[in-house]
Every structure is written in C-alpha cells, then in structure tokens.
Amino acid sequence: MDPVRHFRFSLISLLIVFAAGTCGYSLIEGWSLFDSLYMTVITLATVGFREVAPLSDGGRAFTILLIVFGAGIIAYAVGSMVQILVEGQVLKVLGRKKLEKQISKLSGHYIICGYGRIGAMIAREFAARPKSFVVVENDIEVCERLSNEGHLFVRGNATDDETLLEAGIERAKGLITAVTSDTENVYITLTARGLKPNLFILARASDDSAEVKLRRAGANKVVSPYTIGATRMAQAILRPSVVDFIEIATGSQNVELQLEEINISIRSELVGKTLMDSGIRKQIGVIIVGVKRGSSMLFNPSPETEMLNGDTLITLGEPSAVRELERLAGVEDVS
C-alpha cells in the first residue's frame, strides 16, 4: 500500500474511533454528544484534563479500550503523515492527479508501451506532428524522465488490464508495443486486444517467429527494427538519392516537404470528385502519390480517379498545403 493510501486509511480509522468513543460515552454515561466528544478527544490526546463527570465502572473499562486502540491509530496516522511529508509525496500526488485528469480527457490518442530507444523515438515523432499519446512504463527512473520531458505517462505493467485502462485504452485510436521482450509484446497484444477488439495494434518483433506469434495474438501490423535498419542501410548504399528523398519527405524536422496520408470523410466536399476536378494539384499544390481503398493501393493515380468516402490519399507537398487538403478532406484534428 502506498503512503497516500496509508494516510487515508488511518484518517478513516481515526474518525471511526472518534465516532465510536462519542457514542460509547453517550450510551454508557448518558452524557450529551458534545461532552462525549470532548471526553473522547482528551482521552485519545492523553492531555490529562479531568473528566467531564466521574466515570462509572463501565465508563472506565470503555476508556481503557479507547486508549489502547485509539492511541495506536493516532500513532499510525502521525507516522503516515510524516512519511508523506518526508518523501515529498504531497507534490507527487498533486502532480499525479493532474496527470490522471489530463489522460482522462484524451480521446483518439495512442498508447506507447515501453520507453526505451524505440519508444522514445516514436514519442518524439508523435510530439513533432503533434499526435496525442500516453506512455506506459514500469521503470521509476524512466517515469521521472517522462515527467521532466512533459509527456503523459502511466507507471505500471502494460500486461495488466488496470494499467491499460488507466491509459485510456477504451478511448484510444491505437497501441504500439515497443518493449524489448517479444514475450511481453505478445502478452501486451493479447491484453489490449481483449480490452478493445477493434483497436489498431502495432507490435515490435525481434525475429520471424515472434512476428507470427504477434499476429496470432491480434497485432494488426508487426515491425522488426533490425530488418528495417538493415534494409535502410543497404538502400543508403544502393540508392542513396532515394533514401535522401524519403528522409526529407518523412522527417519530422523538415519544414519544406511532407509526405502524409489523409483520410477522406463522408462529409468532405472531395467525395465524388475526380483528382482533376478537385484542383488538388493546381490550386493547392499537393501531389497525390497514391490512393488506398480498402486493402488495395493505387499508385500514381490518373487525373480521372474518383475519390470516395473512406479513401486514404498518400500526399506529398508543403506542410501548409497538406493542412489545407486535410481541411477539405474533413479531418477533425488539423493542427
């Protein structure tokens, strides 16, 4: 039990003792409630003031019991208070309450499980977009770093239902499990899929066998950092210009060019129009690299391609132009 719960429990116990003492003196001695409360207070405080009135044998026996049990509870309450003050729990509790309040207001956010090298890079990319996210981390020192960096986080084991619920998984848009252990990634995927069946889950895998297990556990997409890293290094030698272009288009620090995907909503004025009629290329200045419709991808679509509700446009253009296209597409969180 943490110090705050200790203190809360001791205060409740103390109130119960005061209530029991007041009722006891009132019933045994026939005193008024105020006199009974006064007698209870001076008895538990051990200040040595004289009794309100001479006690009967039953009253003395009740006083003995009240001192035995009450003094211990008071000592427990004082000890809990000292622990909170010494450990600086007051500020931590206030900060944690504020953090929990902020997380409770999130909707359509992402949950990042694990804040190692991969998790930290993902968080940095999300913060640069910006995209709302909550980090789930069990390490105390890492949680301190998250707090200093200003990220929302939940301290706990991501395989526990309570931890993911605290991170707002019921309102989340997606979950990324990026811990180093494939076994933990599988358990996290199973837990998340059980809590929200329609959640998009991206999982990290170290080898091919783990990828198969993660997909069986319910991951929508599995990524191996080692495979991607090796492929990227090979392409940097074989096709350096292509790699440079991709880095420029997808880099979070780039301010001149942005490769983005935009979902077309049913209320968008683009629905039913062709790419030529929409004026996306001529008027807005955005290039449509591809159109994803369901599970199929149409690369380099023709000007006569009609845009439908639910289509995803793969776009390339300046950030301001991309934001304008997002507005036309009916994207709610345009920033």
Q: In summary, what is this structure?
A:
This protein has three domains: 3-87, Helix Hairpins; 107-223, NAD(P)-binding Rossmann-like Domain (Rossmann fold, 3-Layer(aba) Sandwich), CATH 3.40.50; 255-329, Alpha-Beta Plaits (2-Layer Sandwich).
**Order of helix and strand elements from N to C terminus:** HHHHEHEHEHEHEHEHHEHHEEEH
Any idea of the CATH class of the largest domain? Alpha Beta
Please tally the β strands and state the result.
10
Global mean pLDDT? 87
Shape descriptor reads elongated
Q: Could you characterize what this model shows?
A:
This protein has 335 residues and is α/β, with parallel strands linked by helices. It folds into 3 domains: 85 residues, Orthogonal Bundle (Helix Hairpins); 117 residues, 3-Layer(aba) Sandwich (Rossmann fold); 75 residues, Alpha-Beta Plaits, CATH 3.30.70.1450. It is 55% helix and 14% strand. The strands form 2 sheets. It has a 6-stranded parallel beta sheet, with helices on both faces. A 4-stranded antiparallel beta sheet has the order 7-10-8-9. The longest helix has 30 residues. The relative contact order is 0.06.
Give structural attributes.
335 residues, alpha/beta, Helix Hairpins, six-stranded parallel β-sheet, four-stranded antiparallel β-sheet, 14 helices, Rossmann fold, 10 strands, Alpha-Beta Plaits, 55% helix
Write the layout of secondary structure elements.
Elements: H1 3-29, H2 33-45, H3 57-86, H4 89-104, E1 110-113, H5 117-128, E2 133-137, H6 140-149, E3 153-155, H7 161-166, E4 174-177, H8 182-195, E5 200-204, H9 208-217, E6 221-223, H10 225-238, H11 240-250, E7 258-263, H12 275-278, H13 280-284, E8 287-293, E9 296-299, E10 312-317, H14 319-329
Parallel strand pairs: 1-2, 1-4, 2-3, 4-5, 5-6
Antiparallel strand pairs: 7-10, 8-9, 8-10
